[in-house]
Amino acid sequence: MPVAGNVAIVGSAATVFGVHHELGYLDLLEDASRRAIEDAGLQNQDVEAAWLSTAVTDVVALEGESGSPITERLDFAPRPVTRVSAYCASGMEAVRNAAISIAAGEYEVVLAVGAEKMRDVTPRGSLVARTGNMTHPTLTKGRTGPGFFALLASRYLDTFNRTTDDLSAVAVKNHEHATRNPIAQYNEPVTAEQVRSSAMIADPLRVLDCTPTTDGAAAVVLASVEWAKKSGRPYAVLSGVGFSVMDGYYSGLYNPENDFLGFRATREASKVAYAQAGIHTPREQLDLVECHDCFTITEILNYEDLGLCGRGEGWKLLLDGATTIGGDIPVNLSGGLQSCGHPIGATGVRVVKEVADQMIGRAGGRQVAGAKHGVAHTLGGPGILSCVMVISAAE
Amino acid sequence: MSPFQQAEGPDTAAAVVGTPATLLGAGAVLGIDRVPARKGRRAAARPDEDAVTLAAEAAALAIPADADRIGGIIFVTTTPPYLEGAAVQALAELLDLQGNTFALELSASLRDGLAAVRLAASLAPSIGPVLVCASHAGRGDRTMGDGAVALLIGADAGEGAGLARLTPVTSTSIEIRDRWRLPGDDVPRDADRSFAQEIGTVKLVNDLIAGLPEELKAPPVVVGPDARGSATVEKAGGGAADAVTSLSGVIGAAHPLLRLVASLDAPALVVAMSNGLGEAVHVVPAPAGAAAAAQVRGLAANGGAEADRAMADPMPADFNPYSSGPRAWRDRDVDLRLAGLFGPAEGLPAVPGRRHPEGVIIARTADHVYPAGKVTEMAVATMDDGGQYYGQVTVGDDVQIGDRVKLVPRRLHHGGGMIQYHWKVTPCR
């Protein structure tokens, strides 16, 4: 059977996202996993298989190169565990593969967990140094994550005659949303002036245009919808799943079809997910969106790529307040990556958990009343791949 | 012979006439900045330039668009990027001269620019045109200018052909030190100036000229490490005023060639003398030579951005970008000629070093977190002849969306102890 409409999220949990000097990678992973299993009303031995998402293993001494950390901390032997890595979309790709195993009928109950420990080194020493030192010796040498997205920001602002005030508005909105999210790394509001006066990272992006560097883990338990119904516990349904990989890591950057005004991968993945879920007019049919706002510009581009508005109109959707809590299509009610941080392997799983919580009606102060359909979205690599899931409330 | 008697030197008065040749093309570049020098100003290269990148840019100007197969390449520099192992291979790749090509690197003295002309003239009748690329990039050495000159030298086609007829007329070798470097020296050591002038440049050049038959004499253009001494000989011999040195500085082994090209509107005897190594080439310009001369004189006179920089900063200690010998070999087409990123018909040009590809900036940023110890300018450009480029902007330059740019070879880093050359965008000046 297909995943769409047949696989349910029956349990979930996440650690607080932040700087956890007192907790190691395995501690984070274990905490999220055990609590997610408990949330599903299950015992450890009820889970038949697991998928682990960790993207950057060299900062955790190569733990996470396979799924074995789950075996170690959850006493999981001899059950199968699989490590998944797809850049910043790793978490949702772990969930997707776990869901496929349920749909295939191989298992009844599985676990997908994402964990990343990024603050055992300084932010400059983690991904930035990794990018500088370990990427291809010549191709796009000089590129960093912020530097790449800054290129899109410069092009967007120039093409549509906009200013950095639009970017600041994303940060202000998402940090305000995060005041309602107890697991966010930063849950204090920020002002536009604070964003504008923060340190320059890669112009036009400043510190408060960027996701922080974060430790964290999140986990979801998946089962068939049939199993979920029988359990009698709350659940949400994966009603559409799209995952698109559009190009190679470097070739995608030289491809003239990459116009630096959005991401084809998101457009293709959402097309698949929407078709499966019967979403024809996303802005009208969706109740909320959790998207990959690794940088402020990315959220504006995501609006357009996810079909919430036309190309070049994302800034207007933002400034009209449509994506703010109380708006008709609130985006990143969790505070997004801007506020929650971005422990890479964990992010996608957290995003799925966030939308599932909304569908179940347990999102606390950020709950959208009566939410029926939400979108979870992540973007990976230099925009070459994307995962989009439509998650719906149980009927 | 008494030990107190001066030994008889070689017969510096005897001419060693070489094979005449035709100068088919010439190109020159100077470091874009102008900084104070001992006297006047000097051209200074940017930190991401070196002798190879400067030579590649000059060579692209020297090779006519309709050039036939080039039989060989001689790279001449006293600032070699590799002290052992040579860099002429990288230069050849950048210029699409890789494969079964005679390639030679000379790095002994300032004189070698002219010595390479003699070699090229000898080789051209048998292997075809030879490209001589001479360059100097002192990485902040305030005693010299930075720049490059490339000459494409073909078999003799007689007077009036090409840009000029070049005839090597004499060579000398005497053990006398006026400017040299020992291993580890950042800048050269100089002999006592009076010794260099009285025994070095002035005497040796005068002896060399005196030994020539009358038909090979012409107003001298003299290049040596001692600019004052060189000027003295030039003036005494009726040479034309030096229009470039006070603006460019002496650009090492390329300087004799820079002066040669700048003098292509009148017959001249170009002489280079350094550390007792001397070479002279008799130059009879063709009508087309005058334009080349004017171009080079204009290049020096146009100046550049005023700057005052010390030596190029080294990379931070913790910046060790990945590099790999097998990868560099396997991907040399991509690294050095951008081949294979996309098909030549629809993508980036296969041989950018020979085509001066241009484009327009569509996105740019100044990245403050790339760990290279400096703000790194990055840009995306849509190229006129297809393809999209994403990479660094040349150090010291700034681009804005909509700016016209061109691809130029530059030095990216030397991670892992290997120099990585690649392409950057630079404003069309």
UniProtKB/TrEMBL annotation, chain A:
Residue ranges occupied by any Thiolase C-terminal domain in the UniProt entry: 258-392
SUPFAM superfamilies, per the entry: Thiolase-like (SSF53901)
UniProtKB keywords: Transferase
The keyword Transferase is assigned to this record: yes
CDD domains xrefs: SCP-x_thiolase
Pfam families for the chain: Thiolase_C_1, Thiolase_N
The keyword Transferase belongs to this UniProt entry's keyword annotation: yes
Stretches assigned to the Thiolase N-terminal domain: 7-224
InterPro entries xrefs: Thiolase, Thiolase-like, Thiolase_acyl_enz_int_AS, Thiolase_C_2, Thiolase_N
GO molecular function: acyltransferase activity, transferring groups other than amino-acyl groups
Protein name: Unannotated protein
TrEMBL record, chain B:
GO molecular function: acyltransferase activity
Classification via InterPro entries: Thiolase-like
Record's protein name: Unannotated protein
Species, as recorded: freshwater metagenome
Phylogenetic placement of the source organism: unclassified sequences, metagenomes, ecological metagenomes
